[in-house]
Amino acid sequence: MGAHQTISHLNYAGELLKSGGSNLRVIYLGIYFISVLATIMMYILGNNLTEPLLTESGLGGGNGNPGLFPFVVLSPFLLIFIYGSYWLFNKLIASVTTKSVKNLTIISCAVIGLILAVSIKKAAELRLLIVEQNPSFENVSQVDLINTYSNSIFFNFYTFVALLLIILAAAGIRALLVRR
User: pTM for the full model?
Assistant: First the structure.
């Protein structure tokens, strides 16, 4: 089942929920809960599959980036998580004043920017360290930003919070546009 079909099924389930299907609500919340757990596991595995910069042989690295594997395999759950969180945030924002939605959206965007800036700064510092430690690289431009050593920088609690805040900001922006 493709991502488009999954989202179509979720839209259909969402419409049925609006019409009062209590059994579907339980099923939908169960699927959402499972997707939350799967998404959290993706971030934990991505973080834990970070390779050490130096190993016993003196060189780190290997073949491929195992930290990306959970994201590829569990991506349908990530899509369900994003859709379900967006739906949930829309419901929550509907009961909040416009001024509060503006403040929440601005704060969300600021925290997203802060997390992004810190992550990129840490990745840039790690790239310099990789060039210093690993004789396979001569300059920083040879080291990718996302690599087997930087998984813990991009797949951690803070980037999970950033994902939630991106979804919250999108729901807030939508709510502000609808309320105009």
Answer: 0.78
